[in-house]
């Protein structure tokens, strides 16, 4: 998707059958290392919370709440600042599915428990791999800013984008997801406007 989360109509996702959303933090809803939602996205985040309820929206970051976050202090303060729960997973995407399932109260045995949740993030190797590996509806957004971006992330991002483009050119595509074919979602995520109705 060539847009940020503003292009996502949360109510459309919900009415199509998505039960909740998992949001990456850096460059998805905040500028890198910022503890407040990026101002142009505040209304969109509010709309997500109102469409799904606070219990069904969570921030899943590879910094706050990860193995690097001692005592989950950053997750707690971030959660207070953002007004959204921040997952305390103690790992790094693409790991973390069990913590996410536990957060949403999904039974362990249910392998497709996350299938009705959407993963939204700006990175192929973390967010998209995680979402697709766990059968989620996965939406990749464009990064918000290169300012303050983590150096490793910035280098990786370039390689990921090139590699993903090559895989697509070689005929590989994302795993099929039933919700990805829902006409309302197809229309919403399409970068070209839908054809006019006859
Ligand atoms: Mg990110």
TrEMBL record:
Task: Cite a single GO MF annotation.
Answer: phosphatidylglycerophosphatase activity
Matching InterPro entries, A to Z?
A: HAD-like_sf, HAD_sf, PGP_Pase, PGPP1/Gep4
Q: Which SUPFAM superfamilies match?
A: HAD-like
The family database entries (Gene3D superfamilies) matched by this protein are listed as: HAD superfamily/HAD-like
Coiled coil region boundaries:
none
Identify the stretch annotated as signal peptide in this record: none
| NCBIfam families registered for this protein in UniProt | YqeG_hyp_ppase
Q: What is the recorded name of this protein?
A: HAD superfamily (Subfamily IIIA) phosphatase
Source organism phylogeny:
Eukaryota, Apusozoa, Apusomonadida, Apusomonadidae, Thecamonas
């Amino acid at each position: 998707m060539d847009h940020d989360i503003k292009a996502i109509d949360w109510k459309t996702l919900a009415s199509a059958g998505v039960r909740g959303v998992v949001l990456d933090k850096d460059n998805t809803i905040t500028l890198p290392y910022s503890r407040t939602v990026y101002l142009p996205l505040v209304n969109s985040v509010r709309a997500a919370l109102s469409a799904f309820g606070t219990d069904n929206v969570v921030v899943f970051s590879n910094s706050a709440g990860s193995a690097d976050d001692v005592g989950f202090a950053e997750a707690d303060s971030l959660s207070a600042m953002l007004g959204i729960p921040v997952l305390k997973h103690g790992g790094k995407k693409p790991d973390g599915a069990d913590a996410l399932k536990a957060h949403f109260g999904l039974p362990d045995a249910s392998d497709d428990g996350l299938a009705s949740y959407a993963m939204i993030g700006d990175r192929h190797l973390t967010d998209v791999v995680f979402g697709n590996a766990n059968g989620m509806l996965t939406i990749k957004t464009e990064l918000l800013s290169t300012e303050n971006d983590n150096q490793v992330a910035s280098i990786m991002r370039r390689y990921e984008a090139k590699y993903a483009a090559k895989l697509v050119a070689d005929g590989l595509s994302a795993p099929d997801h039933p919700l990805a074919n829902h006409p309302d979602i197809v229309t919403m995520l399409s970068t070209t406007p839908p054809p006019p109705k006859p």
